[in-house]
Design a protein that fits this description.
Elements: E1 17-21, H1 25-30, E2 40-44, E3 49-51, E4 71-73, E5 75-81, H2 90-95, E6 100-108, E7 110-111, H3 112-120, H4 126-129, E8 135-137, E9 153-158, E10 161-167, H5 175-185, E11 193-195, E12 203-204, E13 210-215, E14 218-223
Parallel strand pairs: 1-11, 3-8
Antiparallel strand pairs: 1-2, 4-7, 4-12, 5-6, 5-11, 6-8, 9-10, 9-13, 13-14
């Protein structure tokens, strides 16, 4: 089923994309990173967003032309903010109508080797995380069926093989904890997107790979060219 309420790239609703690093302990371990004691945050610009209905291809993913870095995938549960949030407690967020007004799955695409090089030098990650096409979003769906997001499962299949499986109960920081923490760091506005972190199983995208993202009864497919 691919029922959606609207395109992820609707400029009327699209704001900044706030990403959460290392929100699953197993993913932190597979990359040899320490488990954080508070959420690690970084931002992708709206210009990085493409819809999953666009083929993931060289003309969509604008990989820097002066590099030969491989593109890695990271499947993530994503939510869209529907109401302003600033220095908001968890209870306040839960009581705010439309604080979360849509949900979907996304791919945080990363030039992993470049990211490692930048981190080693103490430099920001933007060149590895924010290129055009680096945020792939499936169509938005109604969030009501996911209740409080405490028990949401999602999967990424590559070439019909289960590659990543996310379970929100395994998050180091729950969705509402994330929203509260982010809202104290900087204001969230309607249209902002939160990528809640990726489970273990990340890897390289290769030409010809067939991708299937599953979130409950919803399913989306695309292909790497």
């Amino acid at each position: 089923m691919t029922t959606s309420i609207e395109s992820p790239c609707n400029a009327k609703y699209l704001g900044k994309v706030v990403c959460v690093g290392r929100n699953y302990a197993a993913h932190a371990a597979e990359l040899g990173n320490e488990i954080p004691t508070r959420p690690i945050l970084f931002i992708k610009p709206a210009s990085s967003v493409v819809g999953i209905d666009s083929l993931i291809a060289s003309q969509v993913i604008d990989v820097p032309r002066d590099t030969a870095y491989e593109v890695h995938y990271e499947a993530e549960l994503c939510v869209r903010i529907g109401a302003p949030l600033k220095a908001a407690s968890i209870d306040a967020i839960k009581e705010t109508p439309k604080a979360i007004d849509a949900v979907t799955l996304g791919l945080d695409l990363t030039l992993r080797e470049l990211q490692s090089e930048l981190k080693a030098k103490g430099h920001p990650w933007e060149r590895a995380k924010c290129f055009d096409g680096s945020c792939v979003l499936a169509p938005w769906v109604d969030p009501e069926v996911f209740a409080d997001f405490s028990a949401v499962n999602y999967q990424l299949y590559i070439n019909e093989k289960l590659t990543q499986e996310g379970k929100t109960e395994l998050m180091l920081f729950s969705l509402y904890e994330l929203l509260s923490e982010i809202s104290y760091a900087f204001s969230l506005q309607p249209g902002d997107v939160i990528m809640t972190g990726t489970p273990s199983g990340v890897g390289v995208l290769k030409a010809g790979d067939r991708l299937t993202l599953k979130l409950g009864e919803h399913q989306w497919q695309t292909e790497v060219e």
